[in-house]
Design brief:
Mean pLDDT: 82
Number of strands: 8
Structural class: alpha+beta
Helix content: 10-25%
CATH class: Alpha Beta
Low-confidence stretches: 1-17
Number of domains: 1
CATH topology: Trna Endonuclease, Chain: A, domain 1
Strand order of the largest sheet: 1-2-3-6-7
Order of helices and strands: HHHEEEEEEEHE
């Protein structure tokens, strides 16, 4: 098994949408957050979960005097050579570099995580949706986010980032 919070055998996970395990995208999002927290713990991280829905991030990773704020997304929407993943937020509270450090995007059918630094998506050119391509490449120079696939090491703050944030 090896899957946290599993109601199906491992071979059934890749067909999650076919079996309609979740009634709403909110339920699927909550499941993806649990999957992220379990995987982060498996990689040795200490996980914090904000109470309620008022925090601008889904999960935090604790590093003593520093936390890394993570917004979790998931996709099963196949397109061309990859999967379409949206990074849109509530219009009343958009994602900003002041509130999020990383996006964790889970490609459900491939059981693959992308750990993308927030500045990559929220920088000068804001990206609200991207293609993630965790399968065989077809076109050269078309896969901009593959360096973030399973890049769990990026979540650990560098020594200069470990200083407490100014208030």
């Amino acid at each position: 098994m090896g899957r946290a919070f599993s109601f199906a055998s491992p071979q059934d996970w890749s067909r999650m949408d076919e079996f309609k395990f979740f009634k709403t995208f909110k339920e699927r999002g909550e499941w993806a957050e649990l999957r992220f927290m379990a995987e982060a713990m498996r990689h040795g991280y200490k996980v914090l979960k904000p109470w309620g829905e008022s925090s601008p991030f889904d999960v935090a990773l604790y590093f003593g005097s520093r936390i890394v704020r993570v917004q979790v997304k998931s996709t099963s929407s196949r397109m061309d050579t990859g999967y379409f993943c949206q990074f849109t937020s509530n219009p009343k509270r958009p994602y900003t570099l002041d509130t999020i450090d990383f996006f964790a995007a889970y490609v459900i059918p491939q059981d693959v995580w992308y750990l993308i630094p927030a500045p990559v998506l929220l920088g000068k050119v804001r990206k609200e949706h991207i293609a993630l391509c965790p399968m065989q490449w077809i076109r050269a120079n078309s896969y901009h986010y593959e360096s973030y696939r399973e890049a769990w090491r990026l979540l650990r703050p560098t020594p200069e980032e470990k200083k407490p944030r100014a208030r």
